[in-house]
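Sequence and fold
=================
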Amino acid sequence: MIVEIKRKAFGEKIIFEDRKFEIKEGKKTLIKGPSGCGKTTLLRILSGLDGDYIGSLEGKKKFPVILFQEDRLSLNISCLSNLMMVTDDKEKARTALYSVGLGGEEKVKASELSGGMRRRLSIARILLLSGDALFLDEPLRALDDENRRKMAALIVEKFPNITTVIVSHDEDDENLFSVSEMIVLD
């Protein structure tokens, strides 16, 4: 994928001007930089979610899998019901819950989970999907070190050779996801 951004702004604030970014096919690319520098904005442009810029995107993916920075769960339904929103296979949904350490929590409402448990539920949801690219925005936030390692390993195992773009503030994510390319924004 190649994106050329002539101009991207929010009101008077210019985020990108005359920038070009290349994401190599089948590689894992980490986008890092300080808060407010445009990491999530770039991810949204690359994933096709943000078309409100002057420029072009070549090689746009048709079926991206996206893990948002926010968990975007339905809080008033159970963990299992949250997963059943993306699959018809109850056994696969249960297996995904167990794989992220939430086995036995099928009937618990998402609103009753801790922040880290909600994040793992969000990761379980993407593990049930397939697509032609993976976009991860702060994928391991709210997780302790052990769960960070486990969740990164699950994601890499599920999506081994797919074009992956990861936004992160954490230096360890470069190693946890076996990143081969990096974009540093300032």
